Amino acid sequence: MDKGELTFQTEDGGVQGLGPDDYRLIFKAIMVQSRDGLFVTDHAGNVVMVNRACEEMNGFRAEAVLGRNVRDLVEAGYFQRSATLEVIRQNCAVSLITASSNQRKVLSTAIPIHDEGGRLRFMLVYGRGISFLNQITDVLEEDPGSYRPELSDLGAAISELKEMVVQSPAMQDVVYFAVRAAKFDLPLIITGDTGVGKNSMVRLIHKLSDRKNRPLITVSCGNITGTLLESELFGYVKGAFTGARMEGKVGLFEIADQGTLFLDEIGEIPLSLQAKLLHFLETGEIVPVGGLKPRRINTRIIAATNRDLEKMVAEGTFRRDLFFRLNVIPIHIPRLVERQKDIVPLVTFFLDRFNKVFKTQKTISKSALNVLQHYSFPGNVRELENLMKRLTTMVEKDTVQIRDLPAAIIEASLKTEPIPTAQPGGYQDDLNQFELEKITTAVRVHGSQRKAAKALGISQSRISRRLGKLKTGPRNPDNRFSS
Fold this sequence. Notes:
3 domains, 45% helix, 21 helices, Beta-Lactamase, Rossmann fold, five-stranded parallel sheet, Helicase, Ruva Protein, domain 3
């Protein structure tokens, strides 16, 4: 075999060489499919190739780093330090732990690629995020009593975590606690505003529990009336009530036997039904509607609500004893505005997802991304997800700009972002230009600053001050780029 040639064995036991086209095909597949972050530099450290996993891991787009030298990228804050530079200095493979621009810890390994003459030609760098996954691994590898985690446990965690964005310390604490709680077979309750991701947390907990190979049954308690909800949960016997099936019906508790029953919106359950739920939590037994004989069921209860159950207890609309039974392991998911570090990764995550779904190639400008980062998102992650779906499908150009964002988001940003006196260009310049156009248009349409101020919901003096600063401030509307 010639030096540097790749070979593989054929069915008849022979050896067949691979040509240049085969090399390119295989390498492309590795770059695209690898879950590790991969990028390639030339002998001088100039980036020539970046895969999607590397973009997601480090929080940048390939266009921002291609052609640039890793020294410049380190100085610009893309990486804390570079294994590539160590390879250039030492001329051997190097591994080190570094931090990306989004403060994610990454185990980075750089491998030198030499030509037949021994000269350094390229460097292949692959990285894997370690900080948070190491925390998850530590939890799964603990041995409290009889719990013995298997490799599939971590695989299930990673699989579910791929559908979540966990960058902020607040959200990392939540997931860390949830993973730990998953292995203890106790009821738990997840609280948080609508749209924060309670359903995703339930799926993660179920997949990491000993019940992961059993059913996970979800019921939305707010969508079913009290009488019907009781028969849905506990089932009923033959002839239990008018309109019932002749053969009776198995309830969701029994369907979830040996598995998990997720009671979403548990704050909507009427008091009469709360008593039956409490009885199950205390005894492990249920009685179908119209029945007399109890049935023993082994089902784990996970509840969730966006309501203040402690306040409901004080008001007498939720049983105190049931609250304490469910609140053995409480998990609270903070609002998106309380974990702003998750916003940019979420934008990237949903943009990538919907680009694949709708076969588009949308990117988002740095200025538009900054506006989103400063928006409160009252609808939380669900609102952001729906927004990115809308932008991916409805924006005609490939790059989403500030002007493509909903007016409510832009106006909210105008009220919170100060106008700088220096450093023209980029996000703030785009924002100032949009505000100038919005105010001048309102004045023109309504005929005076006073009427325009009323229409915009701000004071006339503020309009006057804004116009003075915006008309005299620095402008460079062409200074836009994609992140």
